[in-house]
Hints:
With 326 residues, the chain is mostly helical. The chain folds into two domains: 16-294, ABC transporter involved in vitamin B12 uptake, BtuC, CATH 1.10.3470; 302-326. 74% of the residues lie in helices and 1% in strands. It is built from 14 helices and two strands. It has helices at residues 3-18, 25-48, 57-74, 79-101, 106-126, 152-174, 177-187, 189-194, 199-224, 235-248, 255-269, 278-292, 296-318, 321-325, and strands spanning 143-144, 147-148. It has a two-stranded antiparallel ribbon with strand order 1-2. Helix 2 packs across helix 10 and helix 4 (79-101) packs antiparallel against helix 9. The longest helix has 26 residues, at 199-224. It starts with a helix and ends with a helix. The model is unreliable at 320-326 (pLDDT under 50).
Amino acid sequence: MSKAQKIALGVLLIVAVALPWLVSSYTLQILIQTITFSMLGLAFASTLKVGLPRFDIAAWWAVGAYTTALLMKKTDMSFWLTLPIGAVTAVLVGWLIFMIAIPRGMMVFLLFGMVTAMAIQQLFGSVDFFGGWGGPGLVPRPTIFSHRFVSKPELYYLGLVFLILNIIVNYRFFNSKIGRAWNAIGSSLRLADSIGVDVVRYRMANVLIGNFFLALAGSYFAAYSPTVMPATFSFGSSIYVMMYVIVGGLFHSLAGPIIGALVITFIPEYLRMAREYEPIITSAAIIVMIIFMPMGILGLIDGRVKRLLSRMGHVGAEGSPKRAAI
């Protein structure tokens, strides 16, 4: 990472920390939602690296949320203990499904993902133990010792810690031997297999890591949302996650999902004045963005920056030495 990138990240972190004191309570609530959606988008973007776009995002998000909600309500367990339980549950159940789906290729994986998303939503909605379609009821707020996370700034900072942890772990993986294997699989499946990359094992590791963080996102959702209901974790939610990545930028696995989640979350919220037309307006806006910005927002910025640098280099090369030095 270059010095300029480190400075930019430092500035972004300072802004992120200061946001609760700069925006209204309503905007802060949208930012809290954006944190959750960003974590979902990061999991989707990660699996694209191994050529497995997934439609089961909402399913594992739900597993984390319901695990935290049920354990806190039925056993009075601490929020912090429910985090690893929910994450491990999502990994173990996912492993049982993926060990069948992943060796059979992308199409089978996609179909299994669609069925899993709908099956888990139906399970949580139809079984009384999970509270039926009304959910398990009000979920207690997380606590540290005697302090309870109640205010929106506190819940925002809690989510920000989860998001930063997610980004750091993904960054470390992407820039490791494992990440290079993922990139090889995503670039050419046959070539990766021919040079000895265990495609099934690396794909399995990728999606299970994604499941782990999807469950953490679900636990965080249960921490700030008053209720947890099956309708929240519908198959349509997984489709929205795909849009976060497309709008943000397909080739930006870390920043792209966050930018996309921010844009797509704020558009509907600020169109509530035209609630009946909001889905149409949002869909039209996304289609226009995809047509005119196929590489996403960050892809458009990259193109402009590269053209600017190219023109600057061209002028510097053709200008006089004295002017170039200035």
